[in-house]
From TrEMBL:
Residues 188-283 form the Peptidase M20 dimerisation domain. NCBIfam families: amidohydrolases. This is Amidohydrolase. The keyword Metal-binding applies. It comes from Microvirga makkahensis. The Mn(2+) ion enhances activity. One of its GO terms (biological process) is diaminopimelate biosynthetic process.
Length: 389
């Protein structure tokens, strides 16, 4: 039971959809064109229900199997949004919108889930209900969470849910996954250090926020090295420093912006507590004051062990025993499918994208050769998870 024949037949059509999305990237919740095409196609496939405007611009299609004695409802989710990146490729279907680009392959994800919907609506060879979920604003906007707040899970009776992301570096025709924490929680901080500005020749009459900031940055390195269990994982990165305008003035303030990534709730809480204490006390040492705005973002993406085992078995059936890694290392990137996995058991799996540029790189392009594998996995999750009677 490798790639489904009918799916292979659909590959060219799906690729054409994908390249159209690629040429017309949209950001965040402003995915009106993409969502419009998705809804129109789902209707043309004969979905039993097509709902729009869920989580602002999210779209949901419902496909009922030939029978429904199982009473099961499985959700499959794709993301539709692009990134604010100027594309650096010469592809014939490169972005027509300067500064916007499908650099994370969400064009491929949307097209693949549409392909699966077309196949499932055509064949309906399952006993239960398939729900295809197209979310906006995965790239930082929390579109998945917005759909949940709009009642996604309850309204469609979703009992389990699956997500898939292309992964450069994993060969085409392969899948990779793991049970448990798979993607990190992503939190952000803005630290404002208030000193006392003045003439640079008279530092003793000032409180230098730059020297203070340097000590804060150095001390923050101890969160990962000294405060969190080395067998747990944490990243604390200061990514922006803003202070001063010239060479002979000690400024009044300094700002530090950064990100914190963790794979467990314990590490997440501990990292925040340590960062707050380090900032407050280091600043006090130098006579400066600090304010810290600490914003929690996407939670940890946690795969259910049983559902991961199930997807692995389906992936092996599609790609072959040797083409499925089931102990793929967790990633410190974040993913807002995490919100869906907080609500329902399921799994988030990586689809091999081959040796392309990395995601979020201006030369990245989703590898269309992966499409038949991704679409077959979607279809088989439904057909194996709710076998026809
Ligand atoms: Ni992505």
């Amino acid at each position: 039971m490798p790639i489904i024949n009918r799916v292979a037949d659909l590959a060219d059509e799906i690729t054409a959809w994908r390249r159209d999305f690629h040429e017309n990237p949209e950001l965040g919740y402003d995915v009106h064109r993409t969502a419009g095409i998705v809804a129109e196609k789902l209707r043309s496939f004969g979905c039993d229900e097509v709902a729009t405007g869920i989580g602002r611009t999210g779209v949901v299609g419902v496909i009922k199997g030939k029978t429904d004695s199982s009473g099961k409802v499985i959700g499959l989710r794709a993301d539709m949004d692009a990134l604010p990146i100027l594309e650096a490729t010469d592809l014939p279907y490169r972005s027509k919108v300067p500064g916007k680009m499908h650099a994370c392959g969400h064009d491929g994800h949307t097209a693949m889930l549409l392909g699966a919907a077309k196949y499932l609506a055509e064949t309906r060879n399952f006993d239960g209900t398939a729900v295809v979920i197209f979310q906006p604003a995965e790239e930082g906007g929390g579109g998945g969470d917005a759909m949940i707040r709009d009642g996604l899970m309850e309204r469609f009776g979703i009992q389990e849910v699956y997500g898939m992301h292309n992964w450069p570096g994993v060969p085409v025709g392969h899948f990779a996954m793991r049970a448990g924490p798979t993607m990190a929680a992503a939190d952000r901080f803005t630290i404002t250090i208030e000193g006392k500005g003045g003439h640079a020749a008279y530092p003793h009459k000032c409180i230098d926020p730059i020297v203070t900031a340097a000590h804060v940055i150095t001390a923050l390195q101890s969160v990962a090295s000294r405060s969190i269990d080395p067998l747990d994982s944490v990243v604390v990165s200061v990514c922006t420093i803003k202070a001063g305008d010239t060479f002979n003035v000690i400024p009044q303030t300094a700002m530090l912006l950064g990100t914190v990534r963790t794979l467990s709730p314990a590490a997440r809480d501990a990292a925040e507590a340590r960062i707050r204490a380090i900032v407050e006390n280091t600043c006090a040492t130098f006579g400066a004051t600090a304010s810290i705005e600490y914003k929690r973002g996407y939670p940890v993406t946690v795969n259910d062990a049983g559902k991961t085992e199930f997807v692995a078995s389906v992936a092996k059936a599609v790609a072959g025993e040797g083409a499925v890694q089931t102990n793929f290392p967790p990633e410190m990137g974040a993913e807002d499918f995490s919100y869906m996995l907080e609500k329902r058991p399921g799994a988030y799996v990586f689809l091999g994208n081959g040796e392309t540029a990395g995601v979020h790189h201006p030369a990245y392009d989703f590898n269309d050769a992966a499409t038949p594998y991704g679409v077959s996995l979607w279809a088989k999750i439904i057909e194996s998870g709710m076998p026809a009677r």
